[in-house]
Amino acid sequence: MKQSVSDIAHDLRTPLTVIKGNLQMLEKEESFSKESMEYLRISREKTDVLRDMVDDFFELSVLESDQTEVELQPVSVNGHLMEFLVDHETVIRDHGLTPVIHFPEKDAIILADEKMLDRMLGNLLNNVLKYAKNEFEISVEMKEQKIYITFSNRIPDGTDLEVEHLFDRSYQGDKARKSSGAGLGLYIVKLLAEKQGAEAFARRKEGTLELVLQYQRNSVS
User: Fold this and answer.
1) What are phi and psi of 177, to 5 degrees?
2) At what angle do helices 185-195 and 34-64 cross, to 10 degrees?
3) What is the SS3 assignment for 88?
4) In this structure, what DSSP letter does residue 217 have?
5) How far apart are CA 156 and CA 158, in angstroms?
6) Distance CA 156, CA 161 (A)
7) Distance between CA atoms of 81 and 118, rounded to whole angstroms?
């Protein structure tokens, strides 16, 4: 079944790429009415959602097959996060958000797979982009032999959210947080963390949702 899911997801990637490319070309046409352009915009957005879902299913099938190679090496958390934010500055700004950053004076060093870490950070940021308003926070804390990387944003009062299940497979939670995706983003973060000997979890604190990556502190830090 896992191999079938992987094969199907792989086969869907090419036609979806072609469809998205054609829709982007059509959006450049000046002869369409405003109504037609709106239909094109919606179609492209839904194609993006479907492509993301296919990518998630493909990655999930690989992760769950235990075929993923892990290359652990010392990583500067402060430096890596700053590079990540610079790389994603445009998309953050396009969503009208301002990141509030809290880093320790002394650089935090973890033993991690950089590609996996980037994927995890990307998924956490995607979650923030969907639900945050005005601003969100990224913090790094060092406590004893553990280092915590936290993405947090305010949530409305009365939000029905089962925080302990946010990283479960296909959990989408409260309707206010429900998207058109497959709900695999945070589950993939959890799997990637486990591959590196780390942890991923969520907690609710004073009206704020915190998504946390917990790594062991590297001996050189």
Assistant:
1) -110, 0
2) 30
3) coil
4) B
5) 6
6) 11
7) 9
- Radius of gyration over alpha carbons of the chain, in Å? 19
Q: Which of 55, 62, 27, 59 is closest to 41 using CA atoms?
A: 27
pLDDT tens series, the chain, 221 aa? 556 665 676 677 778 888 888 888 888 888 888 888 888 888 988 888 888 777 777 777 767 766 678 899 999 999 999 999 999 999 899 889 999 999 998 888 999 999 999 999 999 998 888 888 889 999 999 998 899 999 999 887 766 677 888 888 766 554 444 454 556 889 989 999 999 999 999 998 888 899 999 998 875 54
Judging by DSSP bridges, how do beta strands 135-143 and 98-102 pair with one another? parallel
Contact predicate 163/148, CB 8 Å: no
Residues 6+ apart with CB under 8 A from 88: 122, 125
Q: Residue 204: enclosing H or E segment and its boundaries?
A: strand 199-205
Residue for token pair 């769950």:
64
- pTM equals 0.75
Cα–Cα distance measured from residue 74 to residue 117, given in angstroms and rounded to the nearest whole number: 12
Q: CA-to-CA distance for 73 and 64, rounded, in angstroms?
A: 23
In angstroms, rounded to a whole number, what is the distance separating the alpha carbons of residues 138 and 211?
Answer: 10
- CA 82 – CA 80 distance, rounded (Å): 5
Q: Which among 216, 189, 188 has a CA at the least distance from the CA of 200? A: 189
8 Å CB contact between 185 and 127: yes
Position of tokens 């060093």?
Answer: 109
